[in-house]
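Bench notes, afternoon.
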Amino acid sequence: MGYSSNASAVKAAATDRPVRIVLCGNPNVGKSTLFNTLSGGSQKVGNWHGVTVGVSEREFSYRGAAFSVVDLPGIYSTGGGRAEELVAEEFLRGKEYDAIVVVAEAKNAERAQGLIRALKGFNRPITAFFNKSKAFAAVGGKVDEKAAARSLGINVVLGEATERESAERLLGYILRCDNYPKTGSGENFTELDYKPKKIDKAFLSGAFTLSFFALFTCLAFYIPFGRYGAVRLFSEAVSEFFDRLMIPLIRRWLSGSCSPFLLSLFCDGILVGVSSVLAFLPQIGAVSFCFDFLDKSGVISRLSAFTDGTLRKVGLSGKSVYTAVCGFGCTALAAETALGIESETERKRVVLSLPFISCSARTPVYMFIADRFLGGNAFFVIAVIYFLSVLSAILHAWILKKTAVKGKSEPLIFELADVRLPAVKDLLKSLLKTLGEFIIRLGSVIVAVCAALWLLKHFSLSGYIADGEEKSSLLYLSGEKLSFLFRPMGITQAEFAVAALVGIFAKEGVAATLALSVGGGFSLGFPQAVAATVFCWLYTPCLTALSAMKKKVGFRLTVLSAAWQLAIALIVSYSAYFILSL
């Protein structure tokens, strides 16, 4: 059965095929949250434009009926020229679906009338879902549900996007099939006796918001990376567990049942490499949790508003803040969120500056080098890198504005999010997703890298070699070809060149490679360790990130950016080594 616009089609869909529901609405109103509640998914949610930059779809069932829910980017109209509006309008005009749900915040319910009028033209059943009705009531607001339905000419549901009960009530309205749009009465349906919260008043101050962000960020770094931080102590316990108990136990258990070759490959290669990266999982999770807290609490939204004027002077805008913050997690994901930036020139400047933002995959590398060769000062090392990440990205964007990518930024127009304590459930769900993705990379990329490195280390052009003969190995020979790049920073061991090459495929692989190399005598002095850290921060992003950048700025600019990052990394690391060696 094909999709049609009559009410019976929706009823038939409940048994013959999934009912396809499309979620529309302004940015930052809770569409992705409702999407997750309806479908049981884990779509990225946040308090900022560009969180949904494409079209997401997921199937689910409810009371024996099959549904499919589609999450469109946030839009203000269907006739605009913004990137999100073009994506949404293309879907609404060209795809097949059964019903539209317009999501709006209860406090701005009447503001949704323009979008609802535009969506009536698509001749589909429409239901309005007014989200955060409890928060609106808490500040003295009231939405008359029946008056809203009369005024808008469609069915209206008040509720919370985070609550399953509200989602089920919405599904009931959709299946009822009486929600085709009618001519609305246009009457008012909201009342507000506003009682501003003290926390909202505080975050209306730019100085307070910036100070809070700075202090919170310092705390977010100290908890996982500080010498006496609880998360770091737990991470060290994980490392000790693998090094002193798990790996020796597995070695003894397998020693009588497999060949020495396979035993060494599994224990000395795969387990040592994977466990060295796995030990940093608690710290990466802690940083991710803290930045998710900032996003979902609405602080990032306020920060973007207060930094817009300053950023505009360097060729960026407040819209760049969310993309930059995403860069601390994953450069590839951050590049995708740049779709929400309308100005093409600003979007290029942001994407081309993202490699200066240190992604979470590089964090294990800093931790490893700091713990082994920089006296365990991981908190100081990582705090400095993250601080310099922001400054260098801003400086790079300014240079691009003056040279290769000229042009003005677009005005900042978006819904300012309320400041609130985010739900623990949402934070934990996001954390589990982050940790799950990290573990998947450990179980695929890192395992493959560790196995390949061990084989390269134990084979030469003439065949298998024993321990102690590594200088004739394929690993050493491949590193020798590239090691000339690192001699000016005092690093003569071929293993570091190999680690840098592995990092092009996955930055976590750098830490795994160095962990395997330490057992063979790899070591760095203080100047070399600092130079190595600087290089690992600045050099070319991984292939996944480069692929995401190519989609936004094109092949030529991506290749030039990759070469530019490598040149900058070498020049700055050479300079750091030279200065520290004086």
